Amino acid sequence: MESGSSEGEEVQQRVPLRERVEWSDVTPVPQNDGPNPVVPIQYTEEFSEVMDYFRAVYLTDERSPRALALTAEAVQFNSGNYTVWHFRRLLLESLKVDLNDELEFVERMAAGNSKNYQMWCDALLCSFFHTLHHRRWVAEKLGPEARNNELEFTKKILSVDAKHYHAWSHRQWALQTLGGWEDEPNYCTELLKEDIFNNSAWNQRYFVITRSPF
């Protein structure tokens, strides 16, 4: 075994789009800031390249697997870009992608975007809004079969921060849209046993009592 490397560990470097064979037929479209931009933003080379290629497929309305893969790269650079998320939803429908895989993609983004699901925090409100909107769109398309996934997703966040406002908001949306009311009182009781002063759990309990159809 060569020195300086650990077993099973590989260093993966991102291959620029211009060097990928599958993108050789595409002419990237640079961002047009006008002839005299006042304060041009200094984007990284990788970000600029991804967005230049994204503009190319977006302007031609290319509905292809490579375009879908490109949107994944684009939202990883900037998860607050509404146009990228919108086009990704069009691609998901056109390509008839398994939306359960899409939920996993969004969850990986949340877990990998800094610590403790930082994309849900107010400091990244724009990113949070568009990502959460996309997740809800996917869950609504899947219908009741997405219920357990969404409730477990919020549980993971609440296990880190039991008073996380956005997680509770999403959980309430999931209950009202997808169902799952019958188990919610027990979940609230579990949280209150851990912390009797958890106002969020008390609020959720009241929410279930007053909104549950049962």
Automatic annotation (TrEMBL):
SUPFAM superfamilies: Protein prenylyltransferase. It holds the Pfam family PPTA. This is Protein farnesyltransferase/geranylgeranyltransferase type-1 subunit alpha. Its EC number is 2.5.1.58, 2.5.1.59. InterPro entries: Prenyl_trans_a. GO terms for molecular function: CAAX-protein geranylgeranyltransferase activity; protein farnesyltransferase activity. Its cofactor is Mg(2+). Belongs to the protein prenyltransferase subunit alpha family. The keyword Repeat applies. Keywords: Magnesium, Prenyltransferase, Repeat, Transferase. The lineage of its organism: Eukaryota, Viridiplantae, Streptophyta, Embryophyta, Tracheophyta.
